[in-house]
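As the work plan foresaw, our protein records have gained a structure token line. A representative record is set out beneath this paragraph:
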Amino acid sequence: MKKNISVAFATVATCLLAFSMASPAFSQKQAKYVFCFIGDGMGVNQVNGTELYIGETQGTIGTVPLCFASFPYCGLVTTFSATNSVTDSAAGGTALATGTKTYNAAIGVSTDSTVVYSIATQAKKAGRKVGIATSVSIDHATPAAFYAHQTDRNSYYEIATDLPVAGFHFYAGAGFLEPQKGKRRKAENIFNLFEENGYTIAKGYNEFNRKCQTADKIILTQKEGKDAKSLPYAIDREDDDLTLAQITQSAIRFLTKGEDTGFFLMVEGGKIDWACHDNDAATMVNEVIDFDNAVKIAYEFYQKHPDETLIVITADHETGGFALGTGEYELNLRALAAQASSQEQLSAEIGKLRIEKDNQVEWEDIRELLEEHLGFWDTITLNEKQESLLKDEFAQSFGEKRMKLKKGEYSLNEPLAIAARKILNDIALVGWTSGGHSAGYVPVFAIGAGAEQFHGRMDNTEIPVKISRAAGY
């Protein structure tokens, strides 16, 4: 976690200096190169909380701006769907992709299931190269909204079959959730279908580097043996894991090789949402920082092409109802820096311990694990009540009564890991209203050609319209 924060510190001053020197005059040129970054679940407080967290870890009260939050134009965005005040990612993604409100669970179709086309399709028709990238699976709701047309976001195989139909040049993410449609004889393996339609499959960053120059169209996934559902959380990352920054760099490299016709690139930070579904504040701020690191790759490109590049950052919805402050008129966000792994990873470690010791786990074993992963009793002091709560949960989890894992939106968690995470949230003085989405405003930030349109209050359906206007699609 700390190595990601240091990256944020190192470049934010450069970003701020460049923005302060930029002319406020409106751009007259069309955006030849468009970046659309979507922080899934990233509401206003997720951004502000991360900036306050960075400030506290530097020893100050106040915000240290993220690179993208320092862009010269910003606004607030409403996110309701056609059928619900609280949108899901499918309807939210479809609104951002197509400018059309639809029902929750719909991918690239309107409320009457009519196909609606995305700004990515517009870009391709205008002669631009197109890339779709994410930190979760490529057939997940938000990336799917830019290339697929399905009435149900859970139709993963059918969504994947829409990928070669869209015919975009670059796709990237963890993998695919349903590469084979059950036991249906006529349902072809999705990777065979991709290759038949001219796509090169690159499994891992090193394989991409070997194949990218000769490929006409490419799909980048994690390497063999890695999870197809998502990239690891930044806080849990190993050295050989694919990162969102690497994906962004790979996309730019691929979309600018050969004839330079310009490009449209959508990049989703999908696991901000997952961390918020788990109410895991430390993992969430690390995901926002990691998302910002990917934006910095785009910003470096913008600096080379400032009159022809547009970067837009927004979100499909807010997740968790994240609150900064629990009534004590202060925050203690620096406590989150003690957390060394996600709640999901801590749950896995507790599960391993349970198996290794045949459920005969001692309190000292758990104490050692919580010290290692959350800093308890080391950098984080627990009071008597907090320690008692952990001991009570330990007694229930490892007693005679059979323990049941708690199901989250995207994870299964040990009750003891959940209890420990709640205690750290309490110490940090942050709160959550739910494990689902909320109807809160999300932010939009922009820089570059046409960025002046992205200010004030707007609806999510306006964002693709403004991008299309800026790019001349």
The chain has two domains: 2-324+436-471, 338-428. The two ends are 40 Å apart (CA to CA). Residues 5-14, 16-27 have pLDDT under 50 and may be disordered. Residues 2-324+436-471 form a domain with the Alkaline Phosphatase, subunit A fold (CATH 3.40.720.10).
